[in-house]
Fold this sequence. Notes:
By secondary structure, the chain is an alpha+beta fold.
Amino acid sequence: MKKTFILCIILFASHCLFGQVLELPAPQKTGGMPLMEALAKRASVRVFDTKEIPIQQLSNLLWASFGINRPDGKRTAPSASNKQEIDIYVLLKTGAYIYDAQNHKLIQVTQEDLRSQAADRRFADAPVQLIFIADLSKRGENSEEGKLRTANIDCGYISQNTYLYCTSEGLVTGARGSVNRDVLVSKLKLKPDQRILLAHSVGYPKP
């Protein structure tokens, strides 16, 4: 009986470690660099400082990239037929999370630090790795090719939001398609219909 009780406690504790919720502060929707200036300064960067990004800035970044900006649930980036098939996975030192835009919070997928699987040595110092993943089951096209084509277009809108927010707020970022897909598919527990489309390394410029 005692062994059973101890086993139950261990299983309960293990369950609590995963699926943890990281509450994000409300996004700050004012301020920042004027749009035309941000467009003029937008650039891809491959060298990052290792300094961590404050939770408020991470909150702002995720909302700007693909957060909800209207009461009807529509978002800061468009998606064809409003399918909203792109999910943002956030890789941090404390683990990997999926961004829940509806509730503006992060839900932990694993406690493992997977950032090295999302970036080669050129991007490795960035404290935040964003992975844009399409759930093709949400798209209505008949063929997988059609679904992927539309999802890639939608992903591009989100990527540009990420670039413009980072430029506006003194952060730097670089987008790329090269990630360790086999490892991330397994570690992030992706479904067969989910496809990794793009990664964004985000951090501060290196002095």
